[in-house]
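Submission checklist for the structure archive. All mandatory fields must be present; incomplete records are returned to the submitter.

[x] Identifier: DUF87 domain-containing protein
[x] Organism: Pseudoclavibacter chungangensis
[x] Residue count: 855
[x] Sequence attached
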Amino acid sequence: MQNPVLSMTGNLMWTRSGVVWATWRLQGMPYGFAADATKQLARLQHQALFQGLRGEAVLLGLCASLDPVQVAERMLAGVEIGGRPEWAQEVALTLDGLADVPVGERTFWLTAPLAGTHAKHRARAAAHAVESELRDILALPRRVPSADEVAEAGIIARRVEEAIPGAFAPVRATPAELVWMAQHAQLRGLALDSEAPLPGSDGRRALDVSAGHARGTDERDRIVAGAAFAEPLLDEGGQSDLAPRSLDRFTPFRRRFLKVHSPCSDEASYQVLLALTGSPRGGWVVPGVEWIAKVDEFDFPVDWAVRLQVTSGQAVKRRNKSAENTLRDQITQQSVDGETSIIDNGGHLGDVAESLQSYADALGRSDKEVEVQATTILAIGASNPDDARTLAKHVQQTYQLAEFVFDAPLGGQEQLWWAMHPGAPTERLVRELAQITTGREFASAVPLVSTDLGDGAGLHLADNITSGRHGPVFLDLEGTIQANRSASIGLVAELGAGKSYTMKKIAGDLIDRGGRVFIIDRTEAREYAKFAGSLLPDQTALVDLMHPTASLDPLRIFGVREGARHVQSLFSAMLGVRPRDELGVELARLLSPENVATLGVTSLGSLRAVLAGSEPGSNGARLHGLMSMVAEKDLGRVLFDDSLPPLDLRARAIIPLTAGLPLPSEHELDNKHLFDELSLEKIFGRAMYAFLTGLARQICFSTAQFTMFCADECHHITTSPEGQAHVLDFLRDGRKHNAVAVLASHDPHDFGDVRARGLIPIRIVMRHTDPELAERALDWLERGIASDARILTELTENVSPAGTDGRVAPDRQGEALLRDARQRIGKVRIVAPKRSERREMISTTPVGPDGEALA
């Protein structure tokens, strides 16, 4: 067979058979880790797709390679790289690391011949094909379709497009994409495949039909000759590889493959085409055996195509009525004395009758039901025949475990290969291999499901390991905000699973890309102080509250006018000076602009000095006593020591260290008598956490620069009403101020109430071996999936699992379940920074005396 395409424009192609075909690129639906309700919706969308089609159609799932250069370009998108040498180095190292690692994605396509509503349309298309053949014979230039022909085809294609459910987001294919599909088939298995062209930004505008004419609105409307497709040399069984007298020529059963030699490559592709010839007699269990989607579980590319012939249920019922009458006659003729014979194959008629009745019942469930005749083809390629057959054998054996039989028909490899091409007519072998079912039943195969995660560009957060086809997962927090969506992140994991590592990975990349971060570090090991060593030293500010080298005095870091407001809030929580009490009113008077200027107040230390001269028993004296209670302790240095330089709010990374600062327990906060007896240290700690969270809010909400607030072990903040209120502000209003919050804890309930938990769109759940905590984490990840035993087992047993030695293998560290901003869920592995100094600084694994990691 020759290349079937004569010419094309937009998503339309005119073929040698006289039929015009149209092709759309489809978007897969999330499925693998979705809740049962979401899976049911996906099956219903597939059912609507099959029930909306009529006649012939082809569904394609092709594995597209992803060029490492494109990964680098996505990481650079939106970054002024000239002033970001650290990010440029990270991208360069990422590019080097991807050079030998195959990454890719699966692309989905629907292509269908356009059956004209009038005989003249079909006659015109046939005449065009005959004329093209004659011109080829006479060596004359081919005639391109006229504007009227394009317009007519566009109208018919629009009807097909309207039948495609919007959930699959159909976009009209371009000639570039159609050429890529043909080239991909010729280079299958050679690792030479180029990435699939990006779909147009407005694919639905490929044809602008007005007054019966097609107007070229962009490059996609240009008529492209079929010569754009390279003509391959097809050699079934690789006969050209055999010596003239080789005995292998007489053993064709051992050579069930197709050798494809493309003009685009000096190397031939060896491909095995498998066709579905048998399925479980009793059907398959759904969810659980979505058999077409199973191809993504292989760690090598497997393309698939489904040739469909869809017939309305009413037409099938009329046909089956005739079959029923014939079957009744056969049963009557084979009956003896009114009893059906079971000898000489007569007994099988009862099985036929039962099958016919079951099929009729299935068709009668809905007036929209259709009959689907589907020929399913899998294509596996390699650079040599042995590898191709080995991979194909693995596919066959894997499917055979579920009672699905795939065979490589002898002598039919070339026909199956062409059957996977848009525009190629259906040949006899393909029709003979069709499996007959209903639209509802075939929808349970859910072929159009995607494992895509993350954003189109941004920082490289993780590798997608949901399926055997690994690909990069990008996180574009700024882009998400610009799309008017929240970009806050929640991290949940048990101890040592990697939530702190992930938080530091995100924060470090954000700083390298030009953003700002505010991180509260409460760890005794001061791990974020260590992490700060990998950041820009002149733009990083560390504030150790217990051993301060910088002051957090609000009057000094904000200025007296703005700082006065923060002082009143701080003293309310720390000293019990309520704004409307006598002491609160006195404090407000002292910090008024007039008195501040008169008294020379520039800091809390100077304010305390002014109050030192107050009359005994006065409100000023009482304020001085309360302030001295804190100022004279080591706790108070960070607020009252004027010898310390004030915190520089211009720093790109601000990291307060709160290790050693105790906090009241939730029980103490809930019981008044316990709260009244709190130690000074706990009162101070509670007030400072609330102040730090407010400080973070002030910094993040007062700049146009993209800023991130990070709270590891966030229960230290959310246990207090003040801290919880500030966190809720971040989650509610961060988007408006170009800011996000990143919260981490062992339990999602630590993020706050149901409102706070629900306002976190990007959710990451790492290893949780405790079933109860794992269920809570999964219920937060997506309501409903906690009851799925398969997903619960996946989280507790197969996310960064420990080996027999109690250690997690290096290649299994950092695994997690991720729900992205588009609410798609999949399994990922967090990638480590490529720069060695950053990688060392964000690790929290203890090391022994020999320098080796202890865990």
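[x] Structure attached
Curator remark: Residues 549 and 644 are 6 Å apart (CA to CA). The chain has 31 helices and 31 strands.
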